[in-house]
C-alpha cells in the first residue's frame, strides 16, 4: 500500500474515522470529568547509612546494594501499616467501620481490611542516586492524604527503631544467661587451679623451674668432675697396690720417706766402704747392715702408710661420686615431677584463661547489646513533611485528553483500514494497475463534479468514478 492509497482510504472513510476519534476523545473527557478528584500527600525520609556510635564498633556500615530496596519493602510492609492504624486510631472511626461492614460483610478483621486499603493507595519511591525515599498517599481528602503520608513516615521510623532494638533486647537476654554460665565456668576453673596448688603445696612458675634446671645442670657438672677425680684416684690406688707404689707422687713428695731414702743411700755407701776395709764379718759391718735393714723397713712402713691414704682418698672420691649421682637422680626425679605438676597446672591455668576470655567477650557483647537495646535514635529521619495539596493529582484532564487524542487517532486509522479490508474498493487508477496489471486510459468524472480537467485523470471523487482501461498491445482482454 502506497501513501497515496492510504490517504485515499482515509478520505473515503473519513466520517467513520472521525466518529471513532470523537467517541474516544469525548468519552475520555467525560470520564475524566466524572471521576472523583484525588489528592496526593507527599513526604520523604532520608536514610543515614553511617552507623551510630553504639553499633559502629561491630558494624562498619549500612551501605549495601539492597539496603534501600529493603527500606522500601519495610515501608510497604503490614507492620508499618498496622502501626499507622494504631497511631491514627482508624479502627475507632465509625465511618470506616461501616464501610468495612458494607464492603466485606463482616468477613475477616477490620485491621486486615485497613491494611489492604492503605497499601492500595500508598506509593513508595526510593531514589536511585541518593538515600531519600519518597512516600506518597492518594485520597479524596487533601488533609487525609497529607496525614497518611506523615503517619507512614513516622511509623516507618518507629518500626526501624523497633527492628534494631527488639533483636538487641533478645540478644541481651541471651547474653545475660551466657554470662552467668561463663562466670560459673570461670569460678569452677579457678577453684580447680587453687585446689591443685594447695594440694601440691607449690606455685608452679617458670622461675622455680629455671632454678631447678640450673641446679640439675650444676649437679651434672659436679658429677662429671667427680667421676674424673674418682677415675684418677682408682688408677693411683691400683698403682699403690702394685709393685710401683714407690713411684707414687705422694710417696715421692713425702719428706720423711725422702729423708729415710737419703739415710739409706749414705748407709749403703758406708757399708761398701766398711766391707772393703774391714770385711764382711766385722761388727761395724754387721751394725751397718742392721741399720740399712731398719731404714728399709721404715721406708716400706711409711710407703704403706702413704699408699693407704691413697686408698682412703679413692674411697672418699667414690663415695662423693655416689652421693652426686644419687643427688642427680633425685634432682631428675624432682624435675620430672615438677614438669608433670607444671603441665597439669598449665592445663588448669589455660582453662582459667580461656574461661576468662570467654567471660570477658560475653560481658563486652552483653554491654553492647544492652546499649543497642536502649538506643532511641533511628538511622531514618523525616526530610519533608507532607502538607495538604492545593491541587488534585488525578484525574489529569489535559494528559488524559492528549492520550485520548493519540489513542483515538490510532483507533480511527485502524477502523478505517479494517473497514477497507472488509469492503475493498478501487480508489485510484493505481489500484486498477495493481489489481489487473493493465494501463488506465482515462476516467469519467462523477455526475456532481464541478469541473473536469483532462490533464488530471485522478480526481478527489475517483472513488465514485468508473475506471476504464483498454487492453495493452497483444492483449486479448480489456475493461
From TrEMBL:
Residues 5-88 form the Polysaccharide chain length determinant N-terminal domain. Residues 172-199, 257-305 form a coiled coil. The chain crosses the membrane at residues 15-35, 397-419. Residues 347-419 form the Tyrosine-protein kinase G-rich domain. It is found in: Cell membrane. Residues 225-245 are annotated as: Disordered. Keywords: Cell membrane, Coiled coil, Membrane, Transmembrane, Transmembrane helix. The keyword Cell membrane applies. It is a multi-pass membrane protein. It comes from the Bacteria. NCBIfam families: EpsF. This is Chain length determinant protein EpsF.
Amino acid at each position: 500500500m502506497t501513501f497515496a492509497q492510504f490517504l485515499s482510504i482515509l478520505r473515503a472513510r473519513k466520517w467513520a474515522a472521525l466518529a471513532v476519534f470523537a467517541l474516544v476523545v469525548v468519552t475520555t473527557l467525560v470520564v475524566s470529568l466524572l471521576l472523583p478528584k484525588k489528592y496526593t500527600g507527599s513526604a520523604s525520609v532520608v536514610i543515614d547509612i553511617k552507623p551510630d556510635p553504639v553499633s559502629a564498633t561491630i558494624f562498619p556500615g549500612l551501605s549495601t546494594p539492597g539496603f534501600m530496596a529493603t527500606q522500601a519493602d519495610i515501608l510497604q510492609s503490614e507492620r508499618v501499616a498496622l502501626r499507622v492504624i494504631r497511631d491514627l486510631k482508624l479502627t475507632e472511626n465509625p465511618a470506616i467501620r461501616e464501610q468495612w461492614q458494607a464492603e466485606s460483610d463482616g468477613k475477616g478483621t477490620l485491621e486486615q481490611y485497613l491494611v489492604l486499603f492503605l497499601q492500595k493507595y500508598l506509593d513508595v519511591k526510593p531514589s536511585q542516586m541518593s538515600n531519600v525515599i519518597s512516600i506518597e498517599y492518594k485520597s479524596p481528602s487533601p488533609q487525609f492524604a497529607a496525614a497518611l503520608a506523615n503517619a507512614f513516615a513516622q511509623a516507618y521510623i518507629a518500626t526501624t527503631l523497633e527492628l534494631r532494638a527488639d533483636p538487641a533486647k533478645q540478644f541481651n537476654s541471651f547474653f545475660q544467661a551466657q554470662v552467668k554460665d561463663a562466670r560459673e565456668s570461670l569460678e569452677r576453673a579457678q577453684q580447680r587451679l587453687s585446689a591443685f596448688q594447695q594440694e601440691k603445696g607449690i606455685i608452679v612458675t617458670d622461675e622455680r623451674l629455671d632454678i631447678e634446671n640450673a641446679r640439675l645442670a650444676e649437679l651434672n657438672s659436679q658429677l662429671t668432675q667427680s667421676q674424673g677425680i674418682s677415675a684418677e684416684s682408682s688408677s693411683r690406688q691400683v698403682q699403690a697396690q702394685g709393685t710401683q707404689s714407690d713411684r707414687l707422687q705422694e710417696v715421692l713428695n713425702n719428706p720423711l720417706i725422702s729423708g729415710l731414702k737419703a739415710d739409706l743411700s749414705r748407709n749403703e755407701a758406708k757399708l761398701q766402704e766398711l766391707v772393703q776395709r774391714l770385711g764382711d764379718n766385722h761388727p761395724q759391718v754387721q751394725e751397718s747392715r742392721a741399720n740399712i735393714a731398719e731404714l728399709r723397713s721404715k721406708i716400706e712402713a711409711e710407703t704403706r702408710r702413704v699408699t693407704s691414704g691413697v686408698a682412703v682418698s679413692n674411697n672418699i672420691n667414690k663415695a662423693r661420686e655416689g652421693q652426686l649421682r644419687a643427688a642427680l637422680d633425685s634432682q631428675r626425679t624432682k624435675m620430672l615431677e615438677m614438669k608433670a605438676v607444671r603441665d597439669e597446672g598449665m592445663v588448669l591455668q589455660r582453662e582459667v584463661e580461656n574461661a576468662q576470655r570467654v567471660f570477658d567477650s560475653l560481658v563486652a557483647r552483653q554491654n553492647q547489646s544492652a546499649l543497642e537495646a536502649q538506643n532511641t535514635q533511628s538511622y531514618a529521619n523525616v526530610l519533608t513533611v507532607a502538607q495538604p495539596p492545593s491541587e488534585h493529582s488525578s484525574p489529569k484532564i489535559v494528559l488524559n485528553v492528549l492520550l485520548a487524542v493519540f489513542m483515538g487517532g490510532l483507533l480511527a486509522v485502524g477502523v478505517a483500514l479494517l473497514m477497507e479490508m472488509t469492503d475493498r474498493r478501487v480508489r485510484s487508477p493505481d489500484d486498477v494497475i495493481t489489481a489487473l496489471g493493465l494501463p488506465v486510459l482515462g476516467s469519467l468524472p462523477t455526475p456532481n463534479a464541478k469541473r473536469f480537467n483532462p490533464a488530471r485523470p485522478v480526481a478527489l471523487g475517483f472513488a465514485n468514478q468508473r475506471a476504464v482501461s483498454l487492453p495493452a498491445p497483444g492483449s486479448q482482454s480489456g475493461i
